[in-house]
Design goal:
Two copies of one chain form a homodimer. Chain A is of the alpha+beta class and 161 residues long. Chain A has seven helices and five strands; from the N terminus they run αββααβαβααβα. The longest helix of chain A is centred in the first third of the chain and has 16 residues.
Chain lengths: 161, 161
Amino acid sequence: MSVHTNGQDYLSMAINLATENVHNAGGPFGAVVVTPDGQVFEGVNRVTASNDPSAHAEVVAIRTAAAALENFDLSGCVLYTSCEPCPMCLATSLWARISKVYYAADRHDAAKAGFDDAVFYEYFEENSNRALMPVQHFRDEAVEHLKPFEAWDHMDTRIDY
Amino acid sequence: MSVHTNGQDYLSMAINLATENVHNAGGPFGAVVVTPDGQVFEGVNRVTASNDPSAHAEVVAIRTAAAALENFDLSGCVLYTSCEPCPMCLATSLWARISKVYYAADRHDAAKAGFDDAVFYEYFEENSNRALMPVQHFRDEAVEHLKPFEAWDHMDTRIDY
């Protein structure tokens, strides 16, 4: 892979991965993570094939890149994906410190194909109600909610991220 | 594990996992997925230990449950977590069809311990600017953005989710 390949070519690569994946019992999504020095790491959707709800193409590409580079921090890397990333994939990209994301199809194209990305985006909007999946803060004096952070604070060998 | 264990006990279990994980080179986060019939699946944060930006406790617990149950759909399951789930973990829970989430510490406790959950929540709010990580829609006639969905539409053996 030439480092001179441009963004359009990386998007076409992601789209081709997505299309091939449909014929390999996967969902219609593909992605590539490209490092600043032109290394390319691929991902395809394996949710149903692997029984892994988190195995979206973007997450798979990020996990593959981070494992290969032996670094949880992908700063400077660019993510190209066949379809607009859902909130899970965007947040995973944030944690991975991905620098920029390009996508081809959008959440409305995905909705037409039967996927819930658009609904899940609404879940994160300000003042959205969370009836779809209630999230409840449980605070009771019997629950030592700060205990893990206190242990963390006292751990000299911790790796911050 | 008795099916009569109550939510407070599951939260304490998640907190204990989180605390133990600090002493095992992991982050201060733990979670359990509990099935309607009382099966318990554990997860702890292995981001730095595994070089996997997606390896938050909640995601690990969901992956473990889905793999063990051989089902990407965890409808009816409840997620108990030591700390308020970040957007990645919430969105993963949505895709996994988790029915309800309980948490102990909150995003502000996490921020005090040095974690970016609160910042990443803002990224998803309506009208937030996305300077932290720009996301760009690339549309060009040379990029066949609908090709994967067309393949999906024609695939009789596809598994919808």
